Amino acid sequence: MNHPMNYSGIVPLVFLVIENDADREAITELYLSYRNLFIKVAREYFGKNDAEVEDAVAATAERLCKYSEDFLRVPRKKMPLYMVYTISNVCRTRMRKLREEQAMRYDVDMEDVINQIPDTHGGVGVLFDRANAMVLLDSFENLSSREKELIRMRHIDRYSIEEIADQLNMKPNAVYTALSRAKAHLEKAASRSAKE
Questions:
Q1: Rounded to whole angstroms, how far apart are CA atoms 58 and 87?
Q2: In 75-171, where does DSSP find H-type helix?
Q3: Residue 15 lies in domain
Q4: Contacts of residue 132, Cβ cutoff 8 Å, sequence gap at least 6
Q5: Quick one: 123 and 169 in the same domain?
Q6: Do residues 143 and 183 lie in contact, with contact meaning Cβ atoms separated by under 8 Å?
Q7: pTM for the full model?
Q8: pLDDT digit string (tens) for 30-77?
Q9: Cα(144)–Cα(105) distance, rounded to whole angstroms?
Q10: How far apart are CA 44 and CA 52, in angstroms?
Q11: How many domains does the chain have?
């Protein structure tokens, strides 16, 4: 059974906004010629996430339509480079937007986070746990955005190392190493804050 992403004859309706019939036909031919390449490049960014791959291909079709006159002036032998550049830009823009959306989800009330710390030691233990949590949370701001992202994904969202690797387009070993370094930086920053 063929996967829907392999149907090469599907043409986006967005091409109908191109008024000139010859231009519309040329852009449609261009799209159909490079659609498999678009899918391949998008998979490099989004892995097995078919919805994101399809969105990237659709956004690329929109760009082909929007800038059809420019694309039609590109020499044929330079076209593959332009196509890769276009789909890559679309994917990078989408990845940036996904990261921003993800970062917005992380804007949680720190008081809520602290209140979720379990009471495992009775009254006195909770005071120390919460004090330590406050130091950690204050120190969290000293980390790079990548370190924050890794720690949030692993310890707040509870993603596995493999899920983080898929999301960030990294190898699991690289995620593990980066996460270990991020934790070490957080602990170092927290110990500095605790001394102050």
A1: 10
A2: 79-105, 110-115, 122-140, 145-151, 161-168
A3: 4-104
A4: 190
A5: yes
A6: no
A7: 0.51
A8: 999 999 999 999 998 888 889 999 999 999 999 999 998 998 999 989
A9: 17
A10: 11
A11: 2
